[in-house]
Please model this.
Amino acid sequence: MIALVVTIAAVSALHYATDPSRVILHAAYQRFYYVPIILAAYWYGTAGGLLAAVLSAVAYAPHIHGVWVHNPPYTVSQYAEIVVFLLLGGSVGLISSYQCRLTRRYRDAAASLAEANEELRASQEHLRRAERLSALGEIAAGLAHEIRNPLAGVKGAIEIIASRATPGTPEAEFAAIASKEIGRLDTLVSEFLAYARPRPPELRETQLDALVSHVAALLRPEAERAGVTVDVERRSDLPAVRVDPEQLEQVIFNVTLNAIQASLPGGRVTIQERREGDEAVVEIADHGPGIAAEHLDRVFEPFFTTKERGTGLGLAISQRIVAAHHGALEVRAARPSGTIVRIRLPLPVRPEVTLP
Model:
């Protein structure tokens, strides 16, 4: 803007320095004012154009009044030129502002289109990947189902061998190892089938407090072996929820077991029930080492686990179950350490009773 002001001052100086008899030069100098006015309007919009026009008028008007006062027709034409300055600055400024708005809209539209195109490509790739995973999951689920029958036969044979082996012999030791590994394999197959072919929930009104109490009782021996205390903060006034009790109990069991296994000896696991708006919440918190920040986004991925002997399906199955109940499963880091898992379930909508 300073350069434009200097230009206006320079043009005005030429007017004052040039002899009035050089009318042609003065007419040319008048047109020189157009340059800073148009540039100001183009760069700074209507306000910039009008400001440059006003500055030009203020600089040129004294020259008109002092030099051409004895030539009224020419004086009128010069004042009309000042009006042209203002019209030029305003009109070019309006055009420039409109062009800038169009340019911004075009850029925004182009950016939105590029973003939508990128999202479409990502969605298509995600869909193709999901289709491949679905086909692979069906094949693997069928294979896992076929494995269960011979696995049951092997398990029965190992139990017979173990019953006939003399305690303390290598045969008894190897039979115990084989039985343990077969049990682990059977658990893995069962969890995989539960993830690949989940059954729809059979909803009925259930008290969360009863499920939480039952899970706490089931896991008490596990917690005692780990040296971990499990505290339950119950809410007996919490409304009943419409859930599949067996499936939801499995979710609470999986999450609480993970919390116990993640806790150090002497640690504490807290199970808290509460209501938040139109949701019932079961929060399980531990004070263990916690989940690394880079792993938080992957905890629901099938087969992802940080345990040495984990299957990586517990949280994936739990998330599917909660989603089937139109709820949400959240995993967050606790402060200063540990992990918080929240199970959110919608409360049933009670019809309003209108009194006569």
Notes: Residues 352-356 have pLDDT under 50 and may be disordered. Residues 1-197 form one domain. The chain has two domains: 1-197, 204-346.
